[in-house]
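question for whoever is on the cluster today: can someone run the full assembly for these? two chains, 227 residues total. i dont have access anymore since they changed the login thing
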Amino acid sequence: TQLLEQSPQFLSIQEGENLTVYCNSSSVFSSLQWYRQEPGEGPVLLVTVVTGGEVKKLKRLTFQFGDARKDSSLHITAAQPGDTGLYLCAGESLGGYSTLTFGKGTMLLVSP
Amino acid sequence: DAGVIQSPRHEVTEMGQEVTLRCKPISGHDYLFWYRQTMMRGLELLIYFNNNVPIDDSGMPEDRFSAKMPNASFSTLKIQPSEPRDSAVYFCASSKGRPSVTEAFFGQGTRLTVV
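^ ran it for u. tokens below:
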């Protein structure tokens, strides 16, 4: 089983602060996705990265896939209360088995 | 489209009872996934179907768990008999193509409590 370790597990910040959360593995992934999950809802896809070193931006969110495709980071600039939620990373193993392995997530709380 | 629809949203049952969770995927999606989420273990894949055929059920914890997809618009996850350790949020997700390259859409989940 390929494991994805996310850190930190929990992050509480004030509105306007910047933050970075991490997703690490000892295994190589063919692609990696980030999801956000709000209380009482299912996860919603934010982005997919497939190329080592790839950087994608989604408004104030910046996603990076590690050069070796074993890790990823999510950076949020000027966090807002609406960013509150559980951020999950998920990777597809090499060989394309059509399944995603999820990390346990980082719970982000942004206070006004 | 209304998205992936799961029912019920909440289920409380006594240990030993049979529980059936239901899922209606998005029309046209050929992949369907059942996940279980707990604080301790996070989001775990239980089983997935491609074109209504079960492909990988290695995540199903025990023989007490079974899943079916009789047609493209309906799937069930059954637990018989249920145990307190089965308490979790169960999610159904569907995608058009492999979820790693497209997008997997999740339902709102069924929160199961076994007492």
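summary bc i know u wont read the tokens: Chain B has a mean pLDDT of 94. The CA atoms of residues 9 and 110 of chain B lie 4 Å apart.
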